[in-house]
Design goal:
The protein contains two helices and no strands. With about 80 residues, it is mostly helical.
Length: about 80
Amino acid sequence: MDPTAAKYIGAGIAAIGMGAAAIGVGTIFGNFLSGALRNPSAADGQFGRAFIGAALAEGLGIFAFLVALILLFVVK
């Protein structure tokens, strides 16, 4: 296999993590909204935790994007 083709395939596989991060953020806020509608008095206490979870999921997505860029532009 051509090394350039392997580099593009690896970058594409690494970019899947960005889609997984988007699914994770959607799941976090969907579950938060479901819980907030069931128990509105507890929603204020959980809102910060929802943002922390979303930030961690987005951080992993950014890390996956960084790995894809490193594979594309740094690895020869």
